[in-house]
Design brief:
Number of helices: 7
Oligomer: single chain
Structural class: mainly alpha
Shape: globular
Number of strands: 3
Length: 127
Protein backbone atom coordinates (compact mmCIF):
# COMPACT_ATOMS: atom_id res chain seq x y z
CA UNK A 1 0.00 0.00 0.00
CA UNK A 2 1.07 3.54 -0.75
CA UNK A 3 0.68 6.74 1.22
CA UNK A 4 0.47 9.55 -1.35
CA UNK A 5 1.83 12.90 -0.19
CA UNK A 6 0.01 16.17 -0.89
CA UNK A 7 2.57 17.13 -3.55
CA UNK A 8 1.65 14.12 -5.70
CA UNK A 9 -2.11 14.55 -5.19
CA UNK A 10 -1.82 18.14 -6.45
CA UNK A 11 -0.12 16.95 -9.64
CA UNK A 12 -2.82 14.28 -9.99
CA UNK A 13 -5.66 16.77 -9.66
CA UNK A 14 -3.97 19.01 -12.23
CA UNK A 15 -3.92 15.92 -14.48
CA UNK A 16 -0.16 16.29 -15.01
CA UNK A 17 1.66 13.47 -16.70
CA UNK A 18 3.04 11.07 -15.46
CA UNK A 19 1.39 11.54 -12.06
CA UNK A 20 -2.21 11.38 -13.23
CA UNK A 21 -2.09 8.03 -15.06
CA UNK A 22 0.18 6.42 -12.48
CA UNK A 23 -1.94 7.43 -9.50
CA UNK A 24 -5.12 6.58 -11.40
CA UNK A 25 -3.82 3.04 -11.88
CA UNK A 26 -2.89 2.77 -8.19
CA UNK A 27 -6.35 3.97 -7.22
CA UNK A 28 -7.96 1.40 -9.50
CA UNK A 29 -5.79 -1.28 -7.88
CA UNK A 30 -6.90 -0.06 -4.44
CA UNK A 31 -3.25 0.45 -3.49
CA UNK A 32 -3.59 3.95 -1.98
CA UNK A 33 -4.19 4.81 1.68
CA UNK A 34 -5.77 8.11 2.71
CA UNK A 35 -4.27 10.12 5.56
CA UNK A 36 -6.36 12.80 7.23
CA UNK A 37 -3.73 15.57 7.29
CA UNK A 38 -2.95 15.17 3.57
CA UNK A 39 -6.61 15.54 2.67
CA UNK A 40 -6.86 18.46 5.10
CA UNK A 41 -4.07 20.18 3.17
CA UNK A 42 -5.80 19.45 -0.12
CA UNK A 43 -9.09 20.85 1.19
CA UNK A 44 -7.32 23.95 2.47
CA UNK A 45 -6.39 24.81 -1.12
CA UNK A 46 -9.73 24.25 -2.87
CA UNK A 47 -10.99 27.06 -5.07
CA UNK A 48 -14.66 26.10 -5.28
CA UNK A 49 -17.33 23.68 -4.10
CA UNK A 50 -16.72 21.31 -7.02
CA UNK A 51 -13.05 20.84 -6.07
CA UNK A 52 -14.06 20.27 -2.46
CA UNK A 53 -16.61 17.65 -3.50
CA UNK A 54 -14.07 15.78 -5.63
CA UNK A 55 -11.49 15.68 -2.84
CA UNK A 56 -14.07 14.58 -0.27
CA UNK A 57 -15.24 11.80 -2.61
CA UNK A 58 -11.69 10.46 -2.77
CA UNK A 59 -11.41 10.79 1.01
CA UNK A 60 -14.63 8.86 1.54
CA UNK A 61 -13.71 6.06 -0.85
CA UNK A 62 -10.10 5.35 0.15
CA UNK A 63 -8.97 3.03 2.94
CA UNK A 64 -7.55 4.60 6.09
CA UNK A 65 -5.16 3.43 8.78
CA UNK A 66 -5.31 4.07 12.50
CA UNK A 67 -3.54 7.37 13.17
CA UNK A 68 -4.08 7.47 16.93
CA UNK A 69 -0.96 8.43 18.88
CA UNK A 70 1.13 9.01 15.77
CA UNK A 71 1.32 12.79 16.16
CA UNK A 72 3.08 12.29 19.50
CA UNK A 73 5.36 9.67 17.96
CA UNK A 74 6.09 12.08 15.08
CA UNK A 75 7.05 14.84 17.51
CA UNK A 76 9.46 12.50 19.27
CA UNK A 77 10.93 11.22 15.99
CA UNK A 78 11.42 14.75 14.71
CA UNK A 79 13.03 15.87 17.96
CA UNK A 80 15.31 12.83 18.17
CA UNK A 81 16.62 13.50 14.65
CA UNK A 82 16.59 17.33 14.88
CA UNK A 83 14.43 17.49 11.76
CA UNK A 84 12.96 20.91 12.54
CA UNK A 85 16.42 22.47 12.32
CA UNK A 86 16.79 20.75 8.94
CA UNK A 87 13.61 22.38 7.63
CA UNK A 88 11.42 19.30 7.98
CA UNK A 89 8.01 19.95 9.48
CA UNK A 90 5.89 17.90 11.83
CA UNK A 91 3.51 16.87 9.05
CA UNK A 92 6.33 15.15 7.17
CA UNK A 93 7.44 13.42 10.36
CA UNK A 94 3.84 12.31 10.87
CA UNK A 95 3.63 10.82 7.37
CA UNK A 96 6.84 8.91 8.02
CA UNK A 97 5.38 7.58 11.29
CA UNK A 98 2.17 6.49 9.56
CA UNK A 99 4.15 4.75 6.83
CA UNK A 100 6.46 2.97 9.26
CA UNK A 101 3.68 1.95 11.64
CA UNK A 102 1.54 0.46 8.87
CA UNK A 103 4.32 -0.75 6.55
CA UNK A 104 3.43 1.65 3.73
CA UNK A 105 5.57 3.25 1.07
CA UNK A 106 5.47 7.04 0.64
CA UNK A 107 5.11 8.66 -2.76
CA UNK A 108 6.34 12.24 -2.41
CA UNK A 109 7.94 14.95 -4.49
CA UNK A 110 9.40 16.51 -1.34
CA UNK A 111 13.17 15.99 -1.57
CA UNK A 112 13.73 16.79 2.11
CA UNK A 113 11.25 14.17 3.25
CA UNK A 114 12.56 11.63 0.76
CA UNK A 115 16.09 12.16 2.10
CA UNK A 116 14.95 11.09 5.58
CA UNK A 117 13.66 7.67 4.67
CA UNK A 118 15.21 4.55 3.26
CA UNK A 119 14.85 3.63 -0.42
CA UNK A 120 12.54 0.76 0.54
CA UNK A 121 10.16 3.27 2.17
CA UNK A 122 9.85 5.39 -0.98
CA UNK A 123 7.45 4.58 -3.78
CA UNK A 124 9.28 5.19 -7.03
CA UNK A 125 7.00 4.58 -10.00
CA UNK A 126 8.62 3.48 -13.20
CA UNK A 127 7.72 6.57 -15.23
Amino acid sequence: MILVDTSVWIEFFKRHHPFFPTLQTLLEQQAVVAVECVFGELLQGVKNAREQTVILEYWDSLPKKNEQGLWIQAGCLSSDHKWLSKGVGLLDAFLICVARTHNLQIWTLDKKMASLISPSEIFMPSI
